[in-house]
Amino acid sequence: MVDLTGIQRVIARIEEIKARFNVNREKSFGGILENAINEYETKLNKEKDNVPEGDISEKKAKEIIKRTARALGVDADLALAVAKAESNFRQNAVSNKGAVGIMQLMPTTATSLGVNPYDIKENVLGGVFYLKNLLERYDGDVVKALAAYNAGPFSVEKHGGIPPFRETQEYVEKVMKYYMSMKEN
């Protein structure tokens, strides 16, 4: 007499695996494989890009910025003013120079900070951390820190303050205006 218990265990295990992966008996193996590959590629692309489907609300963005600024010991109103000037609190904003998200991090800056600029929390963390470092670098001089946020520390040091670039001068003025407005409210 032949012992079929081993074969029965294998068949039972195959059925468990089919149930676990919701294998539809009506589909062909090729169709199942194609679906699995498509699902895997979609998941891989989302992880690779990590781009949010849509923008979050301004209120939620502000909450994230305030929480991050407080945690890093940065004036929340200043961080909010930078975010307003940079992206108007939009995570899907991309500048013509390639700066990404709410705090408008350049990909190279984001990489140096070890953050993903396409993830809102990491973008804000990177931006606020960078702002904090600039404030420390310039002994709390907000104007120099803002100029460096826009034009880079090398330009600020080369020119001994706000560089003579119209874009940077207007940027500093705009952020300071937002900052003062937020301080009043």
Features:
elongated; mainly alpha; 9 helices; single chain; 0% strand; 68% helix
User: What summary fits the major beta sheet?
Assistant: none
The total tally of domains equals: 2
Order of helices and strands: HHHHHHHHH
What class do helices, strands and sheet pairing give? Answer: mainly alpha
**Which oligomeric form is depicted?**
single chain
Can you tell me the CATH architecture of the largest domain?
Answer: Orthogonal Bundle
CATH topology of the largest domain: Lysozyme
Protein name: Transglycosylase SLT domain-containing protein
Organism: Caldanaerovirga acetigignens
InterPro entries: Lysozyme-like_dom_sf (IPR023346), Transglycosylase_SLT_dom_1 (IPR008258)
Domain Transglycosylase SLT: 65-170
Written account of the structure:
- The protein has 185 residues and is mainly alpha-helical.
- It has 2 domains: 5-49, no CATH class; 58-184, Orthogonal Bundle (Lysozyme), CATH 1.10.530.
- Helices cover 68% and strands 0% of the residues.
- The protein has helices at 5-20, 29-49, 58-72, 76-87, 107-113, 120-137, 142-151, 153-159, 166-184.
- Helix 6 packs across helix 7 and helix 7 packs across helix 9 (166-184).
- The longest helix has 21 residues, at 29-49.
- The termini are far apart.
- InterPro entries: Lysozyme-like_dom_sf (IPR023346), Transglycosylase_SLT_dom_1 (IPR008258).
